[in-house]
Amino acid sequence: MPELPEVETVVRRLRAVLVGAKLRSTECLDPKLKSRKLTRHQGEVLQVRREGKNILVDFSGGNSLKFHLRMTGNLIWEKARTKTAIGGAILHPSTEAHLRCRLNFDRGEMRFIDVRRFGTVELAPSRLVRAELPVDPVEDTLTGEVLQRLIGKSRQAIKVWLLRQDRLVGVGNIYASEILFDCRVDPRREAAALSPAELKALARSTVKILNKAIECCGTTFSDFHNPDGESGKFQSFLKVYQHDQQPCRRCKSPIKRLVQAQRSTFYCAKCQQ
DNA sequence: ATTATATCCTGATCGC
DNA sequence: TGCGATCAGGATATAA
Question: A56 - beta bridge partners?
């Protein structure tokens, strides 16, 4: 489930292989994605970057390909091979079944693979894509004061609020639970009711957990892989997510699961107040 | 204005 | 062995 760390992992790898590459053609296998604009697009890649959970591939000529992986999307890079008698790249059968889009570059092929087909790709002018953004929580610029301003008078539970991409981009369901465990804040607390000290701790934990996850190249539960097909490593550092009934790492009391806004939340009722 | 809910999809898993 | 029900969660459209 790609959240900010998984998307950042993809962006870093794609940047290394795509900058300077020339897009020759694009083939959409999923009719849901097919657009004339997209399939006619060509050009040289200037940059690959991330805005929240969006992946932006900037092209010469002022347009950008904008990908969103949603739940199960993967961007896989297949380096061009020397021509063989067989010719063309060989696809793993399970991969082929969920191949939605293939982008042919001069130096290889990028494949957009997505089991549940929630993911999106569109072509948009780069400058429009660069519209003003919500706060990106990777940098130390996320402070308690900033959180306080963003939260305002919101009465949503803090766990639900953390998932709001219109205020703070990048946090998803897995990291929201992990962040709140790290700073010992109860996920059911009303956002606007958190004290300045709690907001400071929340800001610090958010930056800390997301950066740690980026270092680990993300979390792989079932679907996520980087463009080289490798899994993330952060799943071994998860302390509450999917740890229902297991002893808390700090106090040994059983981790609880609850549902907020139709999403699972995991927390320790004793540690998190 | 904010907040809650239904929807988009498919595969894995579970109970019968 | 299979069959239907349920769950997984990012973001948006719609409802309240």
Answer: A49, A66
Distance in angstroms: CA A197, C1' B11: 43
Other beta carbons within 10 angstroms of residue A175's beta carbon come to 29
Query: Would you say the pTM of this structure is higher than 0.85?
Result: yes
Whole-Å CA distances, A11 to A21, A62, A192, A230, A255: 15, 19, 34, 14, 34
CA distance A75 to A29: 15
Q: A64 CA, C11 C1': separation in Å?
A: 20
3-state secondary structure at position A240: coil
* Residue A90, number of CB atoms within 10 A of its CB: 10
Q: Which nucleotide is nearest to A98 (CA to C1')?
A: B10
Q: Shortest CA distance to A61 belongs to which of A45, A84, A79?
A: A45
Cα A214 from chain centre: 10
The encoded tokens of residue A25 equal: 């053609």
| Token pair recorded at residue A261 | 């806004």
Q: Strand C: which positions are within 7 A of a protein CB?
A: 7-12
Q: Tell me the residue ranges of DSSP E strands in A142-225.
A: none
Q: How far is CA A34 from CA A22, A31, A102, A181, in A?
A: 21, 5, 11, 42
At A90-140, the pLDDT tens digits run 554 445 789 999 999 999 999 999 999 999 999 988 876 555 678 888 877
- Predicted confidence at residue A128, as pLDDT, reads 64
Residue pair A141/A135 in contact by the 8 Å Cβ criterion: yes
Q: Is the dihedral of CA A83, A87, A88, A94 positive or negative?
A: negative
